[in-house]
Design goal:
The complex is a heterodimer of chains A (115) and B (107). Helices cover 0% and strands 48% of the residues of chain A. With 115 residues, chain A is an all-beta fold. In chain A, β4 and β5 form a beta hairpin. Chain A starts with a strand and ends with a strand. The mean pLDDT of chain A is 93. With 107 residues, chain B is mainly β. In chain B, 0% of the residues lie in helices and 54% in strands. Chain B is built from no helices and eleven strands. In chain B, a hairpin with a 3-residue loop joins β9 and β10. Chain B starts with a strand and ends with a strand. The interface between A and B is medium-sized, with 18 and 21 residues.
C-alpha cells in the first residue's frame, strides 16, 4: 500500500514570496491533516479535513496560510507571503476515520527554508 | 504552561541500559495517549498507544497516570537502533505533541 505522498521535499524561498505544498493521502483515507514542525519542537496541527470539509483550522494563521482539499482527495497548503518564522517541516498525515487518532500515517514532509 | 511537556534530554545511555521518559499534560479531559518515534529528518511513526492499565510491547512499556496527568515510556535493554526522538502525544479532539525527548544509545 502506498503511503502519504508529499511534494516538494525541499523548498527555499525568500521572505514575502509565496509557496505551495502538495499532499496525496493514502487511498481511501477520508481525514487529512497538515502539521507544522519547527526545529526542536513537536508537530503542531494547522488544519484537519474530513473529506473536502474543514474540521479544525483553529491553529492556522489565516492571514497568510490557506489550505484546500477540493475533491476530498489530495490537498494543497499555501503560504502567502512567507515570513522567516515559517521555516519548518510541513507534514501531511491521513487516517481512515475521523477522530481515529491512533492510525494517523505521516508523509515524509516538505522542508521549507525562508531566507 | 505547555499542553504537553517532556524533558528534552538528550539522554545518552550505553547499550543494554534501561531508560525512562516522562511526559505531563495539562488537559484533564484528554482521552488518547501515544508515544511516537521520530528519526532524524524523518516523519513521526507510531511506537505504541498508552492504555489506562499500562501496556507492554517487547522491550517497551508504557504507563498512564490520569490522576497526576502524566505518561511514561520505559525502554529495557536499549539497542543502538533505539536512538531517536520520542514524542509524547495526547489526544482529545486532535493530537497535541510534546517537543520530544532525544535518546542516543552508544556502544
Amino acid at each position: 500500500e502506498a503511503g502519504v505522498a508529499q511534494s516538494p521535499r525541499y523548498k527555499i524561498i525568500e521572505k514575502r514570496q509565496s509557496v505551495a505544498f502538495w499532499c496525496n493521502p493514502i487511498s481511501g483515507h477520508a481525514t487529512l491533516y497538515w502539521y507544522q514542525q519547527i526545529l526542536g519542537q513537536g508537530p503542531k496541527l494547522l488544519i484537519q479535513f474530513q473529506n473536502n470539509g474543514v474540521v479544525d483550522d483553529s491553529q492556522l494563521p489565516k492571514d497568510r496560510f490557506s489550505a484546500e482539499r477540493l475533491k476530498g482527495v489530495d490537498s494543497t497548503l499555501k503560504i502567502q507571503p512567507a515570513k522567516l518564522e515559517d521555516s519548518a517541516v510541513y507534514l501531511c498525515a491521513s487516517s481512515s476515520l475521523a477522530g481515529d487518532l491512533e492510525t494517523q500515517y505521516f508523509g515524509p514532509g516538505t522542508r521549507l527554508l525562508v531566507l | 504552561r505547555k499542553e504537553v511537556e517532556q524533558d528534552p534530554g538528550p539522554f545518552n545511555v550505553p547499550e543494554g541500559a534501561t531508560v525512562a521518559f516522562n511526559c505531563t499534560y495539562s488537559n484533564s479531559a484528554s482521552q488518547s495517549f501515544f508515544w511516537y518515534r521520530q528519526d532524524c529528518r524523518k516523519e513521526p511513526k507510531l511506537l505504541m498507544s498508552v492504555y489506562s492499565s499500562g501496556n507492554e510491547d517487547g522491550r517497551f512499556t508504557a504507563q498512564l497516570n490520569r490522576a497526576s496527568q502524566y505518561i511514561s515510556l520505559l525502554i529495557r535493554d536499549s539497542k543502538l537502533s533505539d536512538s531517536a526522538t520520542y514524542l509524547c502525544v495526547v489526544g482529545h479532539n486532535d493530537m497535541r505533541f510534546g517537543a520530544g525527548t532525544r535518546l542516543t544509545v552508544k556502544p
